[in-house]
What we know:
Layout: H1 5-30, E1 37-44, E2 55-58, E3 61-75, E4 78-88, E5 98-103, E6 110-115, E7 133-134, E8 139-140, H2 145-150, H3 153-156, H4 161-175, H5 181-192, H6 194-198, H7 200-219, H8 221-240, H9 242-264, H10 269-286, H11 288-308, E9 323-326, E10 329-332
Amino acid sequence: MKVRPGQVIRLSLFCLTGVACASFVANTLSVPVRGSTDSYSFEFTDVEGLNPGNPVTMSGVRIGRVDSVAFADNGGGTSKAIVDVEIESRYSLESDVRAAVRYGDMLGARYLALTQDDSATTVSARQLEPGDTIPLAQTTPPINLTALMNGFKPLFAALQPEQVNTLTRSFVETFNGQGQAMTTLLDQIATMSSGLVDRQDVFAQLLTNMNTLLTSVDERQPELVGLLDGLNDLSISVVGQNDQLVSLLDQGNRTVSSLAQIMAGSNGAFGQTVQQLESVTGSWIASTDEFNRLLVNLPQFADAANRIGSYGSFISLYLCNFTLKAGDMEANIFGPTHSPVCS
């Protein structure tokens, strides 16, 4: 196979162009630091989202990049993160420098922001040497913006997507140290919460009812504790008797099915029985006093019946009189003679 010089030249140019593009992309992604650099270490309690290659800024100016992020033991069962950074040698850091992990954009990118304490109390701060470590007391972990936004879920549910985006953008700008966004943030919150003000009576009534409910629960705390303990014991018993519970549910299903068939075949008799039962209970309730007297006298009746049968397992009955009346006519069937018991 014969290779032409022109083909070799075109292939070489293509390969060189590909290598140049790859190098350009790699340099763009890695964000290298120009010139000589000095290395420093920062201790953080949390560096979620911070990765090697993220920029390091001071007063909004990029002065370096994150070199590595490593896990370290902090003693006492706790841990910390060690962040190694490269800072351009022309920038010097003092011992009072503070570092914070902040959001770089809406996509969640992070960067390391450095600030110097210019107050009068730090006039004795010394200049850091390359390789020095900034302790936990001078670093701030990133804000968990996800947890913050989750607290606003009920509010976001009533908002339009454009309003949610505006509010979220204001939060990010505010927590990035851009105080000028605070006015916009407060205006957005005021506008979005205007609907809550219109329903303040409903919320006031809700809080009042909740207060009443919590007061009742607090007053009945012993009963509530007993109820929970009983439910716990019941649950333990049910868990320990799984086979019997399954059998009970199976038999109960058949029993309920049979009862349903009986009710369906009663041709309305079951409904009539329920209605008559309501009448019976109504009459019973109206005669509560008489029923109470019956229950009070029932022991005396039982004692009398016991004395009557004290001579054996029989009861002697004596017919003292048997009279028939029809209008003004009256007839004594057995005559005027009575048993001596009746005298």
